[in-house]
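Workshop exercise sheet. Pairs work together: one partner reads the sequence aloud, the other fills in the structure field after running the prediction. Swap roles for the next sheet.
Pair: D.N. / O.F.
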Amino acid sequence: MVRILTGADVCELIAHSSFTDELVRQTRNLFYRLSGGQGTTLLQCPERSKIVTDEWTLLTMPGHDGQLTTTTVKLVTVPAPNSRRSSSLGLAASTVVLDRQTGGIHALVNARHLTALRTAAGSLVATQLLWKCPLVPVTLALFGAGLQIEYHARLLLDYFPSIETCYIVNRTATRAHALVSRLQTTQATTTTTTRAIKFECVDEYSDHLKPADILVCATSSFVPLIEDRSIRSGAHLILIGSYTPQMHEVSTQTILRASAVVVDSAQHALHEAGELIDAQPHPVLELGQLLHEDGTPNHTMIQRASTGQLTIFKSVGLALQDVLITHLVCEAAQARSIGTIISDFDG
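Structure field:
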C-alpha cells in the first residue's frame, strides 16, 4: 500500500500552527543530534548527487533517521540562473518514503512546500538563538520572491511581532507584489490581532532604505546581493540560496564580520557554499552546537557566534530535514486519512 500526498494534501496538513510548532521543536532536537549529541550514530546523510542540464539541476538527497525509523529520498530540480522557469510555486520536488521493513515505497509526497518550510524552520531556530535580546527587530529584508522567502517571512513575522517594515528585494516587480499579496492574506487569516506591516517592493537594496535588522537571502546569485556597507552592525543574516562553489549571496568582507559563522552542517556547507569556500571563516559552528540536549540554548557557544559585528546562519539544506518533515506530514496524513491510497502498487 502506497500513500500519495499531492501539493494540496500537503498544504492542508501543514496549515495548522501546531504542525509548525512541532516541526520547530523537533528541528532543534535533530540539529543537536547531528552535531554530536545523543543519537548521532542513527543518522545517515550522504552528500547530495547532481545531474546538470541547460535548464535545471537535479539534486538527489537520500537520508535516514534511525530514531524516527524513517528513510527518504528527495528529488528536487533547481532552475538554471538564466532559466525562464518561474519558481514562484517553489522548486519542483518529490520525496519517496521507504517502508521500514521491506524497503519498498511507503509514500510519495509532493515536497515543494515542505522543502521551503523545513528550511525556514531551521533558520528560525538559528535566529531564536542568535538574535541579541533585549533588542527587538523592526525591519526585515527579503532577497527573492519564491516559496523559500515566503515561508521564511511567515515564520519570522509570526515569531517577531515587533517587525514593522518588510522589504521584498526582487528584480521582477510582479513576483514581488504577488508575494506581498500572499503574505498579507496569510497575516489576515492566521492572526487574531490587527497588525499593520509595511511591505515595500524594491529592485535593489540601496542606502536610502532603512537598514534591516534581519536579512534573508534565497537566490542562486553568482555575485553578492548586498554591498557590505549597507548591512548595519548588529544585523542577523540568513543565507540559504547558494549551493555551489561559484555562488555568492554576500561578499567575503561580510562573512568575515561575524565572530563565527553558524551552519546547518559544516561538512556540507564548507564543501558547497561559495561564500564560505572563498572566505574560509574561522570558527565555523554547527547549529546543533548552540543547543543542549533538552533544546535549551547553549549560551557559551552562542557567545562565540555573536561577538562580531554580524551574526550569520548559512544553510545548504540537509536530507535529514526532509526526513523529519516528511515523517511528520505522513503521520498527520495517516491520522487524518488524507491522501490517495494505491493498494496494488506492486501488483
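Discussion prompt: The longest strand covers residues 56-65. What would you look at next?
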